Amino acid sequence: MESTPPPITYPPLSPQDEHNWAMLAHLSILLNLITGLLGTVAALGIYLIFKDRSRYVAYQSLQSLVFQLVVWVGGWAIAGTAWALSGVLSVVLIGFLMMPLACLLSVLPLAAPIYSIVGAVQCSQGQDFRYWLIGDWVRGTLSGA
Predict the structure, then answer these.
(1) Left (φ > 0), alpha (ψ -120 to 50) or beta: where does 79 sit?
(2) N or C: which end of the chain has fewer CB within 10 A?
């Protein structure tokens, strides 16, 4: 009769390790500047690896993942749409009036890494960081509310 090996259990993370992994999850957005979307993969990987070992790391990494998807992917989609609409409407004078809005929307995905660096610094210092609008939603998702 074959016996199954016991499941592998890992010890919980130390507070310093929690802070370091949470910081790395927030800093993963910097990979997007070089690779396009690899930062989301890194944040997802950190979440999947540490979700059962640390609620703090799970919360911070899931927040980082959702933030990157919303701001990086969604931001570029909105900015691209605004530029396309501006180009089409430039045939009529309205498009020229929309170009400042397109410029403003183009800055959003580029400013997102700064916000993530703030989160990384706070996590490295052991503070709880919440992204605006995203943090409460992620906390509710993790707690099953």
Answers:
(1) alpha
(2) N
CA distances from 39 to 64, 68, 90 (A): 9, 8, 35
80 SS3 class: helix
Residues in the chain: 145
| 75-89 helix and 94-124 helix, angle to the nearest 10 degrees | 170
Run of H or E residues at 67: helix 55-67
How many angstroms separate the CA atoms of 78 and 84, rounded? 10
The pTM (predicted TM-score) of the whole model is 0.71
* Phi (first) and psi of residue 39, to 5 degrees: -65, -35
- The helices-and-strands tally (H runs, E runs) of the chain is 7, 0
103-124 pLDDT tens trace: 887 787 778 888 899 999 999 9
